[in-house]
Amino acid sequence: MLSGESANGQFPVNAVRMLANTALEAESCLDYKALYKAIHSSVMAKGPVGVSEAIAASAVESAEDVNASVIVALTQTGYTARLLAKFKPRQMIIAVSSCPITCAQTTTLRGVIPVLADDFKDTEALIAKGVAAAKARGFASTGDAVVAVHGVKEEGAGNTSLMKIVVA
C-alpha cells in the first residue's frame, strides 16, 4: 500500500505516519467484547480445547471484565502469547521469556510486546518484570489491574494453567 510513496515519494515518513494513525483509529472503533465472543464461539465450535487455551480465553475475558490495562504472559516458547493474541484483546500482551528466540518470534504477534528475562525461576519476580515493562512503556499505571497468565512449572513448555489478577 505504501511501497510507492515510502520508496520513491517525497514524504515517506508522513505516509507511514498517516497509515499508522488510520490503523489506530480503526482499532479504536472495535467492540472487543463482541470480537472476543465471536472468536471464542468459533474456537469452541471445533470441540473441547486444552487447558492452556482455556486459560488464555479466560484471561482475555477477565481482562475486559476488570478493565485491566495489560495482560502479562510468562512463556518459554511463545505458545501462551500466541493463544492470547488469537483472541485479540484490547489490552497489550507483555510476553516475558528467558529465550531470546521466543522474544524475537513474538514480535510478529498482534499486540504482543516481548520482555527478555535473565532466568525463568521466580514466577512473582517475572510477573513484576512484566508489570514494570508495561509501566515503562506507558501501558499500565500504579494501581491498574493486570491479568497474569503462567504455569505451575516455571521451567518447561506447555504448562500454562494459572491466571490471576494483580495490581500494578
UniProtKB/TrEMBL annotation:
This is Pyruvate kinase. Keywords: Kinase, Pyruvate, Transferase. Residues 53-166 form the Pyruvate kinase C-terminal domain. It holds the Pfam family PK_C. GO terms for molecular function: kinase activity; magnesium ion binding; potassium ion binding; pyruvate kinase activity. Its EC number is 2.7.1.40. It is an enzyme of class 2 (transferase).
